[in-house]
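User: I'm new to structure prediction. If I give you an amino acid sequence, what do you actually give back? Let's try with this one:
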Amino acid sequence: MLDRSIQPFIREPEQLEVPSPQCQVMPNGIPLYILNAGDNEVMRIDVLMKGGRWQQTQRLQALFTNRMLREGTRCYSAADIAGKLDYYGAWLELSSSSEYDCITLYSLNKYLPETLDVLESILKEPLFPEKELGVIVNNNIQQFLVNSSKVDFLSHRILVNALYGSGHPCGQLVQETDYHAINPSVLQSFYDDHYHSGNCTIYLSGKVGYEAVQRIEALFGSEPFGKGFRSPEKRSYQPVTSSEKRFFVERTDAVQSAVRMGMLSMDRHHPDFLKFRVLITLLGGYFGSRLMSNIREEKGYTYGIFAGSMHYPGSGMFLISTETANEFVDPLIREVYHEIDRLQNDLVPVEELAMVKNYMLGDMCRSYESAFSLADAWIFVHTSGFSNSYVKDSVDAVKSITPEEIRELASRHLCKEKLKEAVSGKKMS
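Assistant: Good question. You get back a string of structure tokens that encode the predicted 3D arrangement of the chain. For your 429 residues, that looks like this:
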């Protein structure tokens, strides 16, 4: 009989075997990465285009160009696109980031010819129809106005603006007038510059057969498509950080205050990046973290508090986010600094560090367990400019880090004087 009073033995994975994608270059020069894994008769196609917020000439241009691809083409109306994808059980996702735009299609293998026909039209011949654009812009304006009344939205805006400045893409705060400046010609201009075969990479994942690869090559890899065929200019921006410490946006009707604390941090290629992630997880990156144990469990100031990092080309941002009752804002912030002091002055107990390592290793295992999560991982590796040893390097960093290194990293990279405090809520007398 199984004795349920005895905790199961925790096994640390000795090594994490992550399959690498097979790469081939199609006749028109587009790299095609193939991850053939899984038993289900389903595939995912990711079409990546270089060009995002960093390359746009006005705010929201990259986002709406990507968003409008499904709203009408020379062959299909928006209703046709939605109807065909729904009929064949397919799913389309559109996303835009700092330097890349992405079109993702999930399709059953047996209907791949039909769904790829829609994808080809979306990619090669969008129309950016004015009527549909007007509806989408108005919907986004309404959502923006709703968000502008929320304390978490307001506190994040003032924090990134304080850290990066208005001249940096991260610090530029979108206003309602920016939505009104979007029109079909603005989107067409961005599309012409960035959506072409010379600026494209395709990933296939799932149960990928020979016929699927041949069909992808016939539709997207045989002939050049698009205009210009120039790679986008690699742009760099210098953050201009405010000298002020605390920023406040009042919402007189707020029941709770949103608190965001942040500072500029290392980019992904810094030598300390992989081990710094262990420190962040220990501080506030999982449910058993120090911030959660102290501020949620012991003090009861919040339901949840999170520490993490966000990364952009050439820079990173260390971030702590939470919401609390208006009267607990200052005590909560004091406890955050107290936990940073502990990490800088005291060695982390071996048992606590072991728990964090096991959590992170288990999370890595879950991140690479399916064909689609593998595709996500390799897209991240390639777009971030990492080598193919990234996964192994990540595992090694987690396994090898010591309490002494944790303390040294905290002293070197968690500078309390540089942490900005952004609060939105009701002002307390």
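You can read the tokens as a compact description of the fold. Here is one thing that stands out. The two ends are 62 Å apart (CA to CA).
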